[in-house]
Amino acid sequence: MTGLENKDASFFTIESPDITLPESSFEKYLISLSIEESMGALSAGSLTFYDPNNYFSRVLRTGVRLIISWGYKRTLAELETLGENQFNLDEVSGQLARRGYLCFVNNPSGGGDANGVITYNCNFTTSGFQGEELSQVYTQGTKKSVVDDALDNLGISRTNRFVNFTLGSDSVTTDKGVRQDESTFAFLNRLSIEWKALFYVAYGANGKPVAVFIDRNVVGKTPLPLWVMNATGGSNALGYKGKLSNVISWRWSSSESEKGVGDHVSAEIVDGQIQYRQYVATQEKVITWRLDNEKIQTVFDEAGADGIAAQLQLTQDLLDTKTFDEVKHYFTPFEDTTAPTGYGYRLSCEMIGNPLMMPGSAIKLINGFPDRLGGGNAKWFVQSVSHRIDSAGYTMKVEITDVFNLSPIGLPVL
Question: Nearest 10 degrees: CA dihedral of 216, 219, 224, 225?
């Protein structure tokens, strides 16, 4: 058994500043390499080595640093000469690579089979992005400045980040402070949910840390791989068995039905008051409900001498409720807006590898897919990417979602 031969012109390199190995030892004995990247999660992956002398099991211990690079050795023009439609990545040119991906070994394991083949496995994470556990309160600036300050704490240069979300201009004051009592990564991930944004950090094509903090209004308006990752690639276009043919297989699903993804409700605190945002599928509207003090006072008045008991019961009702309809009579609608355009579809694709595809990037469906997926004004973005290099070459599994699946009520469903 030998390592990978990179028959499709893909390449990978693995180095470690913590251990010394003979040149190309990692590459010579590597059986498979996978890297998982997803919105709102630290990037991670796994390695499997042929280990006849149990060498890797001795040196690749938990906490050892690895620097991984992968991609293609050649430019698009050279790749296209290897086979018709085999490497059609659409408008992508230059060096197709990700370099300097710093990670840490964890969860080692290994074994031998009935034929005497010994293997070593380990996972790895980019835990360098975790950041310190901090306890602090932001009382000035804007929500965008809070995000920028947190990304500064992660050591991500302001030239290697893209922060653009609708609530970013909202003021942060003493009365409306933003508190952090967790690691910086967990803090940013929580803010992305509360502020209806998508959050992602990784190592870019040049090995520098990059970050994205955007909302659905930005998806499709900026070529993220170009702007953030300093890559020379272009659009993330998908095609199946046609003019463009970078998709090997695919499967789509709908979150609910063609009429939408069903009614959804989210609760949030605004100026110290609870309010609910409800999506009504039949009307394609988002209705915001605010606690109605007059209705609550009526409940208390009707309770008479048992007013305190009524207050306690109301509190218990709000805590125990499982559906908005159970407490709807305590609220009054005060705002409705049109739901974002979309269909609630998800698309899973196995594709020819593209190192420049990253979570948060906009997607175009070019050919080979049903009209119901490519038509209309639906916007698609990458939710997660799993890069894999093994004996079959460089492939990836990509989870793509209609922007509508950020949820009509504005919260990411990740």
Answer: 120
Last residue of a domain, one of 128, 146, 166: 128
The H-or-E segment that residue 214 falls in is: strand 209-214
Bridging pattern class, strands 345-352 and 247-254: antiparallel
Q: Give residue 124's pLDDT band: very low, low, confident or very high (50, 70, 90).
A: very high
Q: Which of 175, 162, 166 is nearest to 143 (CA)?
A: 166
Each residue's pLDDT tens digit, 193-233: 788 788 888 877 667 788 888 876 666 555 554 444 444 33
Residue 118 lies in a domain: yes
pLDDT digits (tens, 9 = 90+) for 143-192: 999 999 999 998 888 888 888 888 899 899 988 889 998 889 889 988 98
- DSSP letter (8 states) at residue 162: E
Domain encompassing residue 20: 10-128
Residues 264-272: what's their mean pLDDT?
Answer: 55
> 219 in a domain, yes or no?
no
Q: What is the DSSP letter of 255?
A: S
Which strand (E) or helix (H) includes residue 348? Answer: strand 345-352
Q: Which CATH number covers residue 28? A: 2.40.10
What does the angle CA 182 – CA 274 – CA 171 come to, to the nearest 5 degrees? 60
Among 33-37, 62-66, 110-114, 158-162, whose mean pLDDT is lowest? 158-162
Q: Are 109 and 85 in contact (CB under 8 A)?
A: no
Gap between the Cα atoms of 20 and 225, Å rounded: 34
State the first-to-last Cα distance of the chain, in angstroms, to the nearest integer: 39
Q: Supply the DSSP string of 275-302, one letter for each residue.
A: EEEEEETTTTEEEEEEE-HHHHHHHHHH
Domain boundary among 93, 128, 163: 128
The vertex-158 CA angle with 236 and 133, nearest 5°, equals 105
Domain count, the chain: 2
CA separation for the pair 360, 32 (Å, rounded): 26
Sign of CA pseudo-dihedral 288, 142, 224, 355: negative
Residue 154 inside a domain? The answer is no
Q: Which two tokens stand for residue 315?
A: 């509190």
> Which residues, 6 or more positions from 392, have their beta carbon under 8 angstroms from its beta carbon?
none
Residue 306 lies in a domain: yes
- What amino acid is encoded at 302 in this protein? E
For residue 375, the 8-state DSSP code is S
* 400: nearest Cα among 335, 329, 331, 348: 348
User: 3-state class of 69 per DSSP?
Assistant: strand
Least confident of 11-20, 166-175, 267-276: 267-276
